[in-house]
């Protein structure tokens, strides 16, 4: 495919992962250690939908997110985001292009308050140096509090992020990611450590992020049942390979077929 | 509709005073007033007081990268050495015809006429500025390489940098090897002149770093300390922020070294640069004892430990560095948040997590117009925040929690 | 350039410098090995490494003053330092469970200052040496001087390194340590995990201290010790460790010898002004070399990636 075609981003999926092999952090090739690596994983994510990545523990979901977000380098294949190849970019560049991820367990800046955490995550153009020396604007604070309320942290603005319980830290991390106005969000294990009601709330929240803010989502979780409720399209990973892909209905039907 | 497409609340006067936290501004003003008044009260202490101001500058600067960003540099002493050498070089270049051999600071407070005073003051300025700028340039170049290292490797590498600079400094053209400097005409102003220089420098550093402490730059640095990978993954310019912090620190430390050269009356790298490694150690200890990451911690640490330092110089000069070493071990191991952390836990009942942050939350309170100390301000500002009601609500909730 | 011309005209001088450097590097090797172990297992860079070397040297010197043979002095220094290292771990480093990296680092830095100043107060600033009553070999008509004490120290040093390395691979405790060494490196921002007393942490600290003590005793056999020597040794050991990377002793040893030789030449070049700069240059070189390797590896991967994608498409 020519470069010109690649740049016609409108007609192409927002994120394309083409046949990547992940490598572990020590730098060995993945083939030696098949249990926690990716082998020829491909997927594509259209604009404005919620895509799920499911699979049992150790299937390589988090590794896939690491590879996409540039925190680990890939062994083979290529990754395209919004018309640019991001296979070998560092994670900072990728985030500034509008592909932001969350972590499991959630990672926030623990000695800052929630609001200060939000202020560190202003959009990329607000992070340039002379502007960084300025004091926060009222508009930024307003947006930060609004987003905190949006994810359900109504009265936690002043608490130390490190002192929050896990489920609230998850929400804070989502709010921080949204603060930087991403095109797409990679969400890692949004419902781990949550009870049933919390999982329901999280499903609602992710749907609202997708619908009201127009953010494309890639959600990785172990919980297949929950994923069927939230995702428009699901890739099922096992041992580093995509073993099934389809809409929840297709997958559900297939699951119900007698073996 | 996107959540943030709503009109932000009406922005009123956004000047510095509007956001400034009353207590901190008052403390800053009090400190600076004291600095203005002190030379008339105790003129015999001018020399030590000038050194005290320089130590305040050193501690505050080290705190920027070492405290807030969590990248402890063991070699910041290189910057005063560089600043000193460059300053003397520039001054000798500019004032060669007017050079007075033997006019050294140690000569007491001989009266100078006003024009002389102005001339010497102006003569020192380009040198001091050049020293600071050169130190900052070195920090930018060295930081571009060294700050990519993990923080422990960085600490070792900066120690190597200091060894290199101090070691090479001995061979530089304007190194006097501990003797009276041959080229220090600007020192003729005596202790008064040097006191004003030190004070001016400290005032500049205090105001600028206080500003920076309230800005988003501090948040970026604390983010680096808390979780650097996350900061990078969230798209922050991590390396650039670290380099900027180090360059700012080097600028002020370099200027401090440039002012100190005439104060000591000598330009030897290992002697006048605050006795080489010695001040490098005390500088770190001041920040550590005062409280890493906070603003007033390093200032308080600098003042307290400077008194101790001067007393030790009088009574047991050979033991002072031993004391510094022991205190360094004890503070780092048993009181890692320093006096500021202890203060916060003892009197403000903030948790250890809060202690780790510098005054976490207070800044955001201030920016939202919610003054955590003065309730009257809260009411006055509440109407400005009609659009963000829950800020105020949460702010008061936080305040109550604090007074439990 | 005078010194360079001198080196050109007098090749025997080059040989002399290389031999001096080899000796210095050989004595540096155990220090670097200890530092490497502490770094790999505990993720701490020990900044008081050079001071422990100095301490070992002083202990050996005291031992010989009391009539001990220098070789036994090595044993004595290693044993004393072994328990000292264990004590430091018990009293200080173990308490720093979950503390941030800079606290641990600053404790180590404070220890180095404390030890240095303590020895300065106790013994004064002059250099101490041991007269082992061993002869001097003269080669090439006396233009190359090789003290036999240095040869002995060099051989013993290499022996100690090899012994520790073999012990690590053969003994049970050593294997426990190596398992931790081979584990995936923790992120730098993660808090340092304090180790309980029975875990590899205590053992590694004690072993490191013993290695340093032995190195100091060997140093005092062929050269001298004084209280201010610590920092340079720490920096040199750190440079060796960073250049060697994950390789372990087989990589550490040649690098240490190389650093020793480089140091000997740097001391000889114009004015001796290059010697203090050397550790910095070495560290920078290590860093740049790492970058180069990474970039090359990445480029290689990209080439293979294309082939793999093509294969996948064909299938």
What does this entry show, briefly?
The complex is a heterotrimer of chains A (259), B (404) and C (315). Helices cover 35% and strands 21% of the residues of chain A.
Give the topology.
The complex is a heterotrimer of chains A (259), B (404) and C (315).
Chain A lengths: L2 H5 L7 E8 L18 E5 L4 E5 L6 H8 L5 E8 L2 E2 L5 H6 L2 E3 L12 H6 L9 H4 L5 H14 L14 H14 L4 E5 L7 H17 L3 E6 L2 H7 L2 E6 L2 E6 L1 H9 L3
Parallel strand pairs in A: 3-8, 3-9, 6-7, 7-8
Antiparallel strand pairs in A: 1-2, 1-4, 4-5, 9-10
Helix pairs in contact in A: 6-7
Chain B lengths: L15 H4 L2 H20 L4 H23 L9 H17 L19 H33 L4 H19 L20 H25 L1 H11 L1 H6 L4 H27 L4 H4 L4 H14 L5 H20 L4 H15 L3 H10 L4 H4 L6 H6 L7 H8 L6 H14 L2
Helix pairs in contact in B: 2-7, 3-7, 3-10, 3-12, 3-13, 4-5, 4-6, 4-10, 5-10, 7-10, 8-10, 12-13, 12-14, 12-15
Chain C lengths: L1 H8 L1 H32 L6 H17 L4 H22 L9 H23 L12 E4 L4 E4 H23 L1 H11 L17 H23 L7 H15 L4 H20 L9 H37 L1
Antiparallel strand pairs in C: 1-2
Helix pairs in contact in C: 1-2, 2-6, 2-8, 2-9, 2-10, 3-4, 3-5, 3-8, 3-9, 4-8, 6-7, 6-8, 7-8, 9-10, 9-11
Largest interface: A-B, 61 and 59 residues
Flag low-confidence runs of chain A: 25-35
Total discrete domains of chain A: 1
Q: In percent, how much strand structure appears in the residues of chain A?
A: 15-25%
Q: Could you tell me the number of beta strands of chain A?
A: 10
CATH class division of chain A: Alpha Beta
At CATH level 2, the architecture of chain A is: 3-Layer(aba) Sandwich
> Helix amount of chain C, in percent?
over 70%
Nearest-integer average pLDDT of chain C: 80
Structural class of chain C: mainly alpha
Number of helices of chain A: 10
Q: Could you state the order of secondary-structure elements of chain C as H and E?
A: HHHHHEEHHHHHH
Question: Helical amount among residues of chain A, as a percent range?
Answer: 25-40%
Distance between the termini of chain C: 65 Å
